[in-house]
Amino acid sequence: MEKTKLVVLQTSDVHGHIFPINYGTNEYADVGLGKISTLVQDERRQNDHVLLIDNGDLIQGTPLTYQYVRSDSKNRLPNPMVVVLNELEYDAGVLGNHEFNYGLEVLKAAVSQARYPWLSANILNMADGKPYFGKPYTIRTFSNGLKAAVLGLTTPYVPYWEKPEHIRGLTFDDPVETAKKWVPFLKEKEKADVIIVSYHGGFERDLDTGKPIEKITRENQGYRLCQEVEGIDVLLTGHQHRQIAEKKVNGVVVLQPGSLGSFLGKVEIELEKRNGQWKVIHKQSKLLPVKGVPEDQTVLKKVKVYEQITQQWLDQPIGKIKGDMLVKNAMEIRLRDHALIEFINKVQMDAAGVDISTTALFDNESPGFPENVTMRDVVSNYIYPNTLKVVRITGKDMKAALERSASYFKQYKGGEIEVNPAFTTPKPQHYNYDMWEGIEYLINISRPEGERVVKLHYKGAPVKPDAHYDVVMSNYRAGGGGQYFMYQGKPVIKEITTDVSELIANYLLKRKTVNATVNNNWKVIHD
């Protein structure tokens, strides 16, 4: 009986990481496509039949990618992320939600520069209902006649997060219904022996019990894909930045390789020929860590010029901080007003011309601002390419938003203050805890969720539930991102289309020196 083996390799949520660098400190880090390349070459040497797939969120996420899109578009080099994927000879890439952050012009250029197809069967052209980026799937036929099909899908939640002008003319269909249409087609019409679905989305339920692990929306539908779509052999996932391997759901092998190029996902599929057709007889998934793996210098040389330009830009001095804006303890910042958060809120209020603002400490690794601030410090603290919107909300909406933020904490019953697991599992979501300027409030975490806001004042008087307030916030939050559904559909009074990181830099450049101030307008308490 003739047998063969197919190896499927996956990256996902690389977020602009090529070099093994932490850009905040320039210290060495076990991340990036340079290291991934070494693992890929090893796998190709050891196996005859290999597929290499990127699962999305590729072209956004580091100062390197941000500096690239800020460069003059007329003289712009090819996208550095695509340069690397071309060099590694990827078989396919899938569109992630962050692919749209820099706008359609940048994305379309990246797609056109690729020597591999970008797939998304459920992102359609509103005008004709066809896949907007051309290809819903790709098929690789190997020398022994084995046919492997890869179907690309993207979370349809993109419109909740993205600026409307970045997705104009696009519609996002349901991935489960889309898969129900294409998987049988690939099996019956294309005669694929192996069907791989590469879905930029994660799992909404526990893989073992099927119990929900988050609020059930259309953001993550991996479990449903496994349960409801017949004929899938392998489901490659991402978006949640989880490390998932050695698992099957309803007989479907599943995989999710973390983020930033810290792991290469691997699926091994064994097949044998029966009646002239290849049949899957065994399949399993694993994660290959890049820790300790040397980076491929040939790949890094291909994009060295991008890195040099980025490092020069990051070291530009911008201004001075008088006082303390450093982050020493992320939890402490979320318990009481802090100069860094107050400063970012002040920048937002200045840009928007309103007196209420909300922002977040995006990551527990945020360093804060030292005395002498460079662009490196700005992008290390404000890590997303957000813009701002002024949204008109009611006092009732404001309280609901504060209660959503207050649910970040476990109910306090003595001992250490702890984070609610819903904000850490399956994916860290510290960026969904907001802190406000322009109002005065108290959050009592001894109380149950939904009853924690014990004081809410504006200009010294209680906030009225039916009164209207104009609040500046990120475009992500204004669209309801992070389950702040109370903002959805509310009037947008003003849009500030400059990235917040640029607003922060301009604020410092204009003033040269900024005082670190704390007016203590809010804090978290417990009985």
Structural class from helices and strands? Answer: alpha/beta
Globally, the shape reads: globular
- Give me the CATH fold name of the largest domain: Purple Acid Phosphatase, chain A, domain 2
CATH-level-4 superfamily name of the largest domain: Metallo-dependent phosphatases
Percentage of residues in strands: 25-35%
- How are the strands of the largest sheet arranged? 6-5-4-1-15-16
Which CATH architecture of the largest domain? Answer: 4-Layer Sandwich
Distance from N terminus to C terminus (CA atoms, Å) equals 72 Å
Mean pLDDT: 95
User: How many helix segments?
Assistant: 15
Q: How would you classify the quaternary structure?
A: single chain
How many domains in all? 2
CATH class membership of the largest domain: Alpha Beta
Radius of gyration (CA) equals 24 Å
Sheet having the most strands? 6 strands, mixed
Give me the count of strands: 30
Helical coverage, percent range: 25-40%
Residue ranges: pLDDT <50 for 5 or more in a row? Answer: none
